[in-house]
Amino acid sequence: MQRPTRRSLAGAFTLTELLVVIGLIAVLLSLLLPVVGKVRGAAGATTCLSNLRQMSVAWTMYSAENRGRMIDFVEFTTQPAVAWNTYWPGVMERYHVTADAMLCPSAAEAIPYKLGRGFGTANYAWNGKYGNLNSPVRYNNTVFRQGSYAFNRYLTADPVWGGFGGTNAKITAIRPASDVPVFIDAVHYDVCPTNGSAGSPALPPPSLRGDDLGPNPLEHWKFLIARHGRAVNVALADGSARRVPLEETYQLVWRSGWQKYRLDNLPKH
Which position among 43, 149, 216, 217 has the lowest Cβ density within 10 Å, counted as fewest Cβ atoms? Predict the structure, then answer.
């Protein structure tokens, strides 16, 4: 066997040098991974805003083609096709908003187990598979919808919810359009938050994870989730979409007569 020459030994790494190189690589990775995560999160948030704008366009097109009339609220019926096609998820499908556009990249996977009535979480989309039959999100045992967003139920042609004009409500009654949410990141497919006031604010959720809300959570708990940092993305009635910090979600105008105030009572996590 040929013994290594002095020259070959001089060109080889020592164990100490190898450990130093490995250590440097580990340090570089620890510095790069958070950056990569932030870049990925920013890209996902941009895609989410794009999804919301698509949905807002479809909502506007529906209203324009129906002489400004708002969407009908149909939650459960004995005729599955009515709820499936009439309420907002059916409208989105009619105007070619794809299933992928109904999913935020930060919650792109539907929850794989039953939570509440098919609720999602901050990191999971809601899943119609576990929702009620004959509803807008579950046609039968094999046909159902999944999504990461909720519709503002006050924007329906239904006087029960006391929104912007009831049965004969027109989209032109929605004012100020730049402050009225149409779609929002959420754990359920629609929301109608109670107002409260600055002196008696809406009750805070147990956490901002969305996984501990119980079977019948308060409506505003469904969107008070830390999906984009400590914020959610919102599509507004003027066609725009933006990131809204959770504390500022009650500074939007959810219905006529809404009292704006800041939510300063939210949990830290």
Answer: 216
